[in-house]
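Quick one, tokens below:
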């Protein structure tokens, strides 16, 4: 049985006997943190500005009459609030982040240094082109790396995430079918069962109906099923390669041949490009459009760490429909083609107001140039080696979903090995938090029961992998030995206990309101 101390922090019996609960709820130097609105800083300000000389306001009746309702904190109070909050979260800068399908690799600090060069960080998208030649050249070079690595002739840089890239790719595909007079007949998109949720969501968003393609027992696209569903009403297929089971689609050439034969386009979800970068060019596989998550393969921060970027490479057939803007150069230097006329006459439109995530372009190109082509190839090889090491060292205790042969960059286990223990994948993941490890991706892909998808990436050393594997082995042994409470009640040691995720999703509380009887609002 676990018990709660007076401030609601968990203690285990073992802790009670060996370590008394603290009197304040703090743990070592880690203090509890309240909402900033619960601070007693109302009516205070951290800065002392002179009263502005105003000439009245143009806002008329819209002028604010009540206080703005923001808490006031001094600079050290504000600083401490946010630093303490950051200590409650996991980050790739703290430890391994084995979240499958997310490629949480180290973000080299060199990238950050480059992105902060004033010539990149202090420019504005509306500056005259003549004053941002360096930034445009950088975009041109990044485009060159991306088209070279993928073997594709064109790239649309502006999409701001993988899912946004999918939208870009499918809109280019729709534009191409419309230009060929096929817009009204090709209304279906085929998506394998193991696909990331964004794939069917994107297809539906663009107005297509989604048809599922079955999977074989060894975790690949069922080519016979695909062939039977291809036809004159199909606009595109969306296939992830390597797929979300961490496996290379062995029949990829046949898949693209069949797709093209049916007059459809091959959209490849390139989120897993890290496993093949520098080794396989998607253009050689017959891919027509593929997004590249710069924030996965090319190390720019993501998740809580910052915005992503999802450039889309396009085949010759789709290139004319790419969204504006893109960079061109001539004797007068570099410029952005912005309008859907002249060179951009067939562009399907644009995806964002300006040119996309400049900071991510700088980070990604910095990463590419510091690795070089040989280094990027090594990235793929090491990522795959690391995942296979994990698979090999855990397969005697846990059940690999596809035991046959090696995996690519992620090792996938199912929950078969937990049968009879009363412990679920979720329980196991929560116990990992207590042992100091961020859980792997759980219950995805959906085709694998109780899936545990582990992606170490190439940036983890053997020592770090061994530490992770040791913890996983200890937990697996504890699970098999019937130590159920360790899992059911976990996490015991995290700042928050197990949350009611369903309630949080169904009825989120997104607004703070002052407690009854408080005079905060009146201040
Ligand atoms: C991450 C991911 C996406 C979506 O990318 P975002 O940048 O998060 O929008 C799509 N497909 C797969 C397989 C992914 O892993």
């Amino acid at each position: 049985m676990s018990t709660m101390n007076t401030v609601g922090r968990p203690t285990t019996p073992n802790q009670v006997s060996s370590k008394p609960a603290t009197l304040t709820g703090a743990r070592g130097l880690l203090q509890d943190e309240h909402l900033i609105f619960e601070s007693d800083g109302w009516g205070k300000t951290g800065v002392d500005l002179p009263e502005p000389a105003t000439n009245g306001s143009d806002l008329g009746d819209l002028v604010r009459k009540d206080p703005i309702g923001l808490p006031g904190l001094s600079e050290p109070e504000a600083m401490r609030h946010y630093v303490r909050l950051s200590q409650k979260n996991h980050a790739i800068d703290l430890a391994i982040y084995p979240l499958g399908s997310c490629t949480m690799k180290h973000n080299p600090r060199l990238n950050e240094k480059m992105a902060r060069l004033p010539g990149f960080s202090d420019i504005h998208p509306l500056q005259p082109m003549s004053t941002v030649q360096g930034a445009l050249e950088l975009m041109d070079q990044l485009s060159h790396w991306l088209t070279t690595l993928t073997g594709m002739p064109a790239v649309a840089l502006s999409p701001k995430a993988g899912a946004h890239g999918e939208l870009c790719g499918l809109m280019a595909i729709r534009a191409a079918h419309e230009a060929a007079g096929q817009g009204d007949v090709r209304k279906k998109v085929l998506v394998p069962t193991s696909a990331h949720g964004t794939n069917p969501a994107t297809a539906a968003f663009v107005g297509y109906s989604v048809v599922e393609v079955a999977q074989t027992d060894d975790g690949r696209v069922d080519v016979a099923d695909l062939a039977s569903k291809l036809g004159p009403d199909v606009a595109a297929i969306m296939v992830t390669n390597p797929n979300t089971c961490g496996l290379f689609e062995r029949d990829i050439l046949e898949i693209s041949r069949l797709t093209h034969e049916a007059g459809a386009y091959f959209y490849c979800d390139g989120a897993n490009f890290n496993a093949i970068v520098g080794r396989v060019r998607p253009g050689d596989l017959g891919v027509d459009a593929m997004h590249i998550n710069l924030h996965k393969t090319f190390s720019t921060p993501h998740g809580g760490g910052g915005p992503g970027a999802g450039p889309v490479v396009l085949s010759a057939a789709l290139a004319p429909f790419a969204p504006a803007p893109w960079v061109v150069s001539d004797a007068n230097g570099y410029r952005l083609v912005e309008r859907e006329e002249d060179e951009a006459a067939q562009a399907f439109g644009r995806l964002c107001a300006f040119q996309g995530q400049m900071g991510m372009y700088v980070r990604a190109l910095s990463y590419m140039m510091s690795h070089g082509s040989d280094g990027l190839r090594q990235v793929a090889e090491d990522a795959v080696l690391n995942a296979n090491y994990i698979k090999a060292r855990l397969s005697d205790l846990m059940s690999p979903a596809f035991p046959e042969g090696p995996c690519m960059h992620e090792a996938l286990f199912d929950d078969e090995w937990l049968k009879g223990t009363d412990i679920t994948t979720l329980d196991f993941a929560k116990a990992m938090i207590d042992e100091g490890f961020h859980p792997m991706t759980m219950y995805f892909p959906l085709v694998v029961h109780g899936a545990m998808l582990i992606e170490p990436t190439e940036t983890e050393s053997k020592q770090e992998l061994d530490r992770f594997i040791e913890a996983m082995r200890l937990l697996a042994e504890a699970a098999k030995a019937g130590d159920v409470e360790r899992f059911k009640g976990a996490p015991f040691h995290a700042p928050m206990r197990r949350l009611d995720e369903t309630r949080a999703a169904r009825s989120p509380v997104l607004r703070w309101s002052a407690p009854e009887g408080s005079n905060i609002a009146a201040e």
